[in-house]
Amino acid sequence: MIKLLDLKNYLDGKGVFLYFNGRISHDLLIQLGDTLKQELKREEVESNTIVKVFSMFIEQMQNVVRYSAPGETNVPPAPAHFQVGVVSVGYDGNYYFVASGNRVPATDVNRIREKLEKIRSMDKDQLKVYYKEMRKKDIPEDSVGAGLGFIEMARKADKPLEFEFSELNDRESFFSLITLINRE
Amino acid sequence: MWRLAIDATKSTPGIYFDQEKNILEIKGESYPENTSEFYGPFFKWLDMRLDELQDESFTVDIELIYFNSSSSKILMNLFERLEKYAEMGKNIDVNWIYDKKDESSLEYGEEFKEDLTTLKFNLVEKD
Questions:
Q1: Which of A59, A61, A113, A145 has its CA 20 to 30 A from that of A83?
Q2: Chain-wide mean pLDDT for chain A?
Q3: In chain B, what are the domains?
Q4: Integer Cα distance of B35 and A144 in angstroms
Q5: Pairwise CB contact (< 8 Å): B76 & A136
């Protein structure tokens, strides 16, 4: 049987104060975002920091909802706006971390990796220029997002974005992303 | 004739148009589930309204507490549309209303302003 206390102790030990694993919908994202904001307000965290943590959380949750692979079952894929992922927010020494993970199609791995490596190699001024350049580009009418999320996070974060791909099978990989924000 | 009233939700801003004063107000938070789906009908309305604009003034008041990266792109698109009409000599003002307690809200306004040339883009501190 699942040992929930072990899971809880593990998460507590890692400084996690918000954790979700499962199907994520837009409504859930709104609710969890609210919970996160209230939690930080209760601890009297400075409002600029709250905005940063909240913003990272929303960007990452929306990435999960928008870009996850549908999974490997034979049943029809879930609607695109209702995807499976893991998200956690917590403390790590002098930082807050916002981390998320989801399945991505193997064919997307190189594209995402290249994009993130490019962003990681840039300083804040270069990121600003890149952000503005991408913001002015036209996007297809049916696009659900703007492709600016990683750059936005890199600009707000106090450390370069960290990421990892773990191969699940020949069709899918598990993508993890961690962003760090200074605790005052 | 130009009635527009979209009430705010948790993740989408309220968008209202005052027909007598010609003031468009966008206020709240913006992180819609599908950004183009939410803003699409608004842009259709806006294009029609701007096409009909004569010498009268047209003001856009924007007060956003939080907006995500895809909304940022939508805002840029909005300002570029307005700038196109400003270049044609239309009397358009954008007021970016920021809260001085939130450093980033002023910075965001400044970054939009840097990318615009003709459009009057005013950074206005919230009272």
A1: A113
A2: 88
A3: 5-125 (3.30.750)
A4: 6
A5: yes
